[in-house]
Structure prediction request, 978 residues.
Amino acid sequence: MDEFNNGISPVGIAHSIMDELAKTARVAVFATCMVDLAGHTVLEATEKVLEAMGVEVVLPDGQSCCGQPALNSGYPDPAVKLAKHWIKTFEPYDVVVSPAGSCVAMVHHHFPRILEGGWRERATRLSKRTFELTQFLVARQERLAFSLDETVTYHDSCHMKRFLGESSTPREVLSWVKGLQLVEMEGADVCCGFGGTFSVKFPEVSVEMGRLKLDLASRTQAGFIVSADPGCLMHLEGTARAQGIGLRTMHIAELLAKAMQRKSEHLHGDIRS
Amino acid sequence: MSPDSFPQDQDELVAMFIRELEAAGGHGFICDNQEDLIDRVLELCGNRSVLLEEDPSTEPIRFRLLEAGVSAPSDMWDAEVGVAKVDFAVAATGTLVLMAGANRLLGASLLPYMFIALVDRSCLLADFDGLIRTLDMRLADFDTESAKPSAIHLITGPSRTGDVEMQLTMGVHGPPEVYALLYE
Amino acid sequence: MAKRSIGLQGRENIYLDRPIWASAHEEPEGAVLSDVVAQAVDRPNTRKVTDLLMAVEEARGGPAWPSPMDFLRERASVIRRETLEDLPGYVSQLADAARSNGMIVHFASTPGEARQVITDIAKERGVELVVKSKSMVTEEIGLTKHLESMGIESVETDLGEYIVQLADERPSHVMVPAIHRSREDIARVFSQLSGGSVRSDIPELVAFARQRLRADFARADMGISGVNFAAADRGTLVIVTNEGNGRMVTSRPRVHVAVMTMEKVIPRFSDLAVLLPLLFYAASRQRLTAYQTFINGPRRPGEQEGPEEVHLVILDNGRSDISKGSYKEVLACIRCGACQSACPVYRRVGGGQAYLSTYGGPIGAVLTPLLKERPGPSELSFLSTLCGACEEVCPVKIPLTSLLIGLRADYEASKGPYSASGLAWKAWGELWSRSYGYSLSTTAVRLVAPLMEKARQLGFPLPGAAGRWVQGRSLPRFTTRAQAKHGSTAPFDSAPPVLGNFTSDTQDDSSVSREEHIDES
Prediction:
């Protein structure tokens, strides 16, 4: 951080390049540690949607975590170690797609900051081929028929919106789904309170921030709070369950998978089947 | 905003100044002539005690106030109305600018409940940028310490606060009422 | 008998209802940050502060940086960084210009030195009563408390500061010091102070303060103010207020002491055309505050008003060192408070007091650990979700999250190479940068997790992070990744499929797996 940088400068990829890359026949999916540990349904949904688009999905062997937990906890060295491992793992692939906005933001925003020399260049090059799922779907310019009778509200994950600079593609993707109504909540981009290690260092504030988010989302009368970040969803879901809040959470990939497989069905009816 | 986007016409500048001052919670009036100006001041003062700056140009006002039986307070903290000339005014922001100097009475714009600013239309500047440039040149021109005004005050509307529940409320320590009378 | 403040008369009758860690007088040293934060969440007005700041943001609406403001923001970012390139140079230019304007300039490298300088000025001039306008640096050096200990009464005249002074609290917001106090609270404080009944009507509260403090403005011997900007080329100090107390404090008493931290210097007077409108926009979306006061020195011959002496105290407290290091951008701050108002953590802990520092919110979490004499805890950098809302609203584009991440690393490094957490993260890095290590450990978590959930249901406390997670949250339902598309390195093919986690589209005790749901179509 010796040089001045200009605050947040989302590493946006030129759309023409994104569109070109998205024509690929094969993508490597970066599952992320959170999905590996506690969200395999998200991974399956991601695969399902991509495959329906005619994309071959590869889950590279040996993939691990992007290193963000260590970096944000004050341990850049292990984070650098994982970043390098990540680059080695995904470098052989033309396009990398991940269902976790925050982890993609880590690749785009933090990798070039914590790595040096050749590694920094490799990171920068690879980040240009690394997409958050909805970014890829939009760039792919291929419209599947989605249909789902449901009202949802969308939560912008902080890192996806502010560090990846993406808030439009998830909304665009939701607009493809016939019968789906997106009702924006007040403060859609206000932090849910997860914050990685923050959630266990300051659990009381973290939970209260989650409750506030759930409260704002509930006011929209939506049945589900949808997001493109497993971290936020894990925290919100855990909070909602423990606090007895009726609102339910869903990853955007899962919503799409749902909307794909059934012509038109109310999600609520699905729960107790 | 570039100065080009501002009206060059004096009347339009005056109109803009009044509009902006009113948006800031103050009031502006155009006076047709010296007599009209004095009448306005007297009308606003009523029979309250008035703190008036001593200046050859304000002498006619002092005379008329005395005539009307309006008193000067023995302690300036007791004054209910303050009357003073301004050095500059800014059309785009509704700002009044007063510089310290011999015979100036800056307390007139701060201590009383109501401040009446006498604004010569030729003092009107287009925007805040222009004001800062003008003041900067003035400050650079004073070559001795004693010539430099000890203080310059920019006033935009009445005193206000948002300190209680972030609700805008007028009139804390400075005047809750600000009037600008523009004359030629 | 010494002159006493009218504004503070009766303060001994005020019932102090703040927690001890919010006190302006007690040292919060024994307080543990995480405990304080937990308590702050439950304070009666906390949720009101959250709602208020959210409502204000909503009312302001629109993009944070519309095009004309964005232009000023770019300019200001450059100006502030240009200043930091040669901070000592600009400070010395300022000092020369201020002296030639007739001010008396003092340098203080520590808060102690600054306190000494100011009390010496006061004592030598027989000062008994001081009126103050709002200033963060005087909070940083603990000035009011010090003056009181020397028998000099010092009264805060900014309405919000006046309220927190009466209630014996630290200010909770740079721009709105009493944001954590409802109008009912304030009415109660004023009623106890006056022994009368003050209604919780905002204009009435404002009128009460106006009336009470006027006598102090008129009688005070010395005025103490902060400085918003100090122009190095002209030796001009700029003080901005909305209430008018800045004008009172700098013009009515016979001595004016302006206190600034060194980074308040700006290269040129003309930079004010950029910095002032930007400050007002960022702080409150105002085009201009009611008052900007430009001070060039003491009363000139022939002038009828103004102080006989103007002193400028310039505090370092570690800032020269900061300006040479990797965190220098923190000194670009113009104290607008926007990062505080925008921070969801700050909002949800009801303001800045829970940060146990002079400076709360994101800017405080960065600045506090860096100062030489720290006005708060060193682990403040962790009190953030790194959501980046602060950076988005910062008018001078300070990369606050990057600075916070750097400070976290410094904090952990200060524990030495063999701290438990250091060793754990090192092991984590070794394990997770190898595919078998990653598979092994994630599988271990999946195996242990159901046991933890069971233990929790049986009422056993969970250890460490898991224990803190379940304070108000359910544990995630750890699951296995579908193995099919993985290579041969993925072990434990036979691990049983369990429920998905991120969706609530399943019930706790359902034995139906998500796979079955998806596959049934």
In short: Chain B is about 25% helix and 25% strand. The two ends of chain B are 28 Å apart (CA to CA). Residues 8-183 of chain B form a domain with the Rossmann fold fold (CATH 3.40.50.10420). Helices of chain B lie at 10-23, 34-45, 59-67, 128-141.
